[in-house]
From TrEMBL:
It is a single-pass type I membrane protein. One of its GO terms (cellular component) is sperm principal piece. The chain crosses the membrane at residues 663-682. This is Cation channel sperm-associated auxiliary subunit delta.
Length: 689
């Protein structure tokens, strides 16, 4: 409020104590910028950034900032605790307002402002920094830059790509330009200075003036009037206070239109303007309490709906009876090839000219299909409409083998906002806020794989659950396992004793040793079955057993390039071989890809499984327990790391012979010869008699 930093958790309903620096060292106390970041308040003091913990009350200087800065920028994601949302809130940007871009470094932090690194900006000419913003709904860092001609533009930086927008004239010095990034993540920007008010509905790409209703081609601010304050909320509402005490109220959608309120604000008081949770305006005035050594607040509430009834020209009464959905404010995931279906209810009055319009912030990543259908009538006889929305992920291309492959433009973790608003309403229907849903390209948290257990040792009576729970253990002979998982015969020095965990594996699958076998993989989302997994997967025995083979060879699988295998991938790991990370969707190469390595060993076993192919696992003449881990490796199937672990009991094998076959054969032949000789001599004796 000018000379203090005051923190309120009750929307200024309670008195507050000015924030006091209690960190190491002495400061002059010149504060130039502040922003909330997670559970901290990031404050630029004397050209350096400090984090004040809102929970612990401690001060921490930021690390990695090597030059003076003036401004901190951060966007807080409040609709979810998902990692993608937390990553947005943890992104902090630092820069020096008005400095030349080629002389000034822009800093970025991905851990909430604790440490920073340089953000390359690639200046194209003499450019000066007005602002730098995180815009996750287009997966970009956006910089607002000014040139020597008193014009500004926006530069979108995403990875190695950089896109520049058109230039626009500035009407005030660079230091007096403010940029508001309203909450809600719809890509809106409001650029204002004393003699300028501009609005962008799409991350600075298109910039338009803010118009005044009832005055032909009139824009804010009016002639000979300057702008003092601008306030916004996360539903698109905006308020503008001008130097003549006039208050303008508007709503930002595809365009921004305001209406002039009849009430006049007393400018003799130093007021802070903001929106309440109910969409009304609050004028907050700080008042120092010398007795309590704190600051109290005086409030003046401006009821927006009442003011809208007194405007000239009058604002149209809302001709919409209902406008709602079940998706407002929710986060939805789109995995590879999946679809999100949304639905909204819209009940207009018979003469209503408003209609619902669907927008998406990242049209390069999502395809949008909408259909408005009549869905019955209300008890009053008014037609009821349902708006159905279907969202799909873009940037898939068909590969040579007919499968869908992600293109190079595909970006996992991209966040987009879908909004349904009433087109043409301007400032009418104040209580019907836009319906917003947030779409995340990535792995849904509940998506996982399971193995279908139709025939188990428990259902067939081989083992009971009680047996498996009662400290059940088994022995793996040293001849059939490798402790390093490298499939090396003779590498184990002793037998391996394993304690079975029925909690982890429940009852083992029961498999006959002489039957080619493949696990039946299922895809689940939470407790909802999705489908049978149709993707390529691999598996390994977690204890290092290797006494099993595969039905198909590389040639049988019709590979056009040499496929990967466990031995080569494990040997390529830098440290101790780890089959959990050696072969995953991140490094999988299909042997059906002609760009792979040349085919050198067509007789090698093909170790990739798929329920839609003929390849199977072959077990030897061995009765015993296996614990397998399955890893879905097809990168075009899902963003998720789909793995599961299960147990198999193989039965039906003949017991091993106690003697080597050659010894047994020799003994058999010797006995046979002895019997022949005995028979010969007996028959000869009988003949003599």
């Amino acid at each position: 409020m000018g000379k203090w930093i005051l923190i309120t958790r009750a929307l200024f309903e309670e008195s507050a104590t000015p924030l006091e620096y209690k960190g190491a060292g002495k400061l002059q106390g010149s504060v130039s910028s502040a922003a909330f970041v997670l559970d901290n308040l990031a404050i630029v003091i004397d050209g350096k950034l400090y984090l004040y913990s809102l929970t612990k009350g401690t001060w921490t200087p930021a690390q990695g900032v090597k030059s003076m800065v003036s401004t901190v920028s951060a966007l807080q994601c409040c609709f979810s605790k998902d990692k993608a949302c937390m990553d947005v809130s943890s992104c902090v940007l630092l820069y020096n307002l008005g400095s030349a871009l080629d002389d000034q470094q822009v800093y970025m932090s991905s851990n909430g402002g604790n440490s920073f690194f340089n953000l390359p900006m690639a200046p194209k000419a003499t450019e000066f920094i007005i602002g730098v913003f995180n815009m996750p709904t287009v997966s970009s860092i956006v910089a607002m830059l000014a040139d020597n001609q008193r014009k500004f533009s926006f530069r979108h930086i995403s990875g190695n790509r950089s896109v520049q927008t058109d230039n626009h004239p500035m009407r005030d010095p660079l230091s007096s330009i403010h940029v508001i990034q309203p909450a809600g993540m719809r890509g809106h920007l409001i650029i204002w200075s004393p003699h300028m008010l501009l609005y962008s509905p799409n991350h600075g790409i298109v910039i338009v003036p803010v118009y005044i209703m009832g005055e032909e081609n009139a824009t804010l601010p009016p002639p000979k009037v300057t702008i003092l304050q601008v306030a916004t909320d996360d539903n698109g509402a905006m308020a503008v206070l001008t130097s003549d005490g006039v208050l303008y109220y508007g709503r930002a959608g595809l365009e921004a239109t305001t209406v002039r309120f009849a009430s006049v604000i007393d400018l003799s008081k130093d007021n802070l303007m903001l929106f309440s949770d109910y969409g009304d305006l609050m004028m907050i005035q700080a008042r120092e309490d010398l007795l309590l050594i704190g600051v109290d607040f005086d409030h003046k509430v401006i009821i927006v709906q009442q003011e809208l009834t007194r405007t000239t020209p009058p604002v149209q009464s809302c001709p919409v009876e209902q406008f709602h959905s079940t998706f407002a404010g929710e986060l939805f995931y789109i995995d590879m090839g999946s679809t999100v279906h949304l639905s909204a209810v819209y009940i207009p009055s018979p003469l209503c000219k408003f209609f619902p319009l669907v927008t998406v912030t990242e049209s390069k990543l999502l395809s949008l299909e909408e259909k408005c259908v009549e869905d019955g009538i209300t008890t009053e006889g008014t037609k009821k409409y349902r708006l159905d929305i279907e969202l799909k992920q873009l940037f898939f291309m068909e590969a040579a083998d007919g499968t869908l492959k992600p293109s190079s433009s595909l970006r996992k973790g991209s966040l987009s906002t879908v909004a349904v608003d009433l087109m043409g309403r301007n400032v009418s229907c104040k209580d019907f806020n836009p319906l917003k849903a947030h779409i995340l390209i990535g792995c849904p948290p509940g998506k996982h794989t399971r193995v279908l257990k139709d025939i188990t040792t428990c259902t067939k009576g081989t083992f009971t659950q009680e047996q498996l729970q009662d400290n059940f253990s088994y022995v793996i002979p040293k001849a059939v396992y490798d402790p390093q998982h490298l499939f090396r015969p003779g590498s184990a020095s002793s037998d391996l004793h394993i304690s079975y965990s029925i909690t982890d594996y429940f009852c083992p699958l029961l498999v006959y040793h002489d039957t080619p076998w493949i696990p039946s993989l299922e895809l689940w989302n939470g407790n909802e079955f999705v489908e049978q997994v149709s993707a390529d997967f691999v598996m390994f025995e977690v204890n290092g057993m290797y006494n099993y083979q595969y039905l198909q060879s590389v040639e049988d699988a019709k590979c056009v390039s040499q496929p990967q295998n466990w031995t080569s991938l494990l040997s390529q790991q830098k440290y101790q071989p780890n089959p959990n990370t050696a072969w995953t969707r991140n490094n999988y190469k299909s042997c059906k890809d002609s760009d792979g390595p040349p085919l050198t060993d067509p007789e090698a076993q093909y170790q990739v499984l798929n329920m839609g192919t003929r390849n199977r696992v072959l077990f030897p003449n061995y009765n015993g327990m296996y614990v397998f881990r399955v890893i879905v490796v097809d990168p075009s199937y899902s963003y998720c790391m789909l793995t599961t672990t299960f147990s198999v009991y193989v039965y039906g094998a003949f017991p091993p012979h106690p003697l080597p076959s050659c010894v047994a054969l020799g003994i058999f032949l010797a006995i046979f010869v002895v019997l022949l000789l005995i028979g010969f001599f007996l028959s000869k004796r009988n003949y003599k008699k």
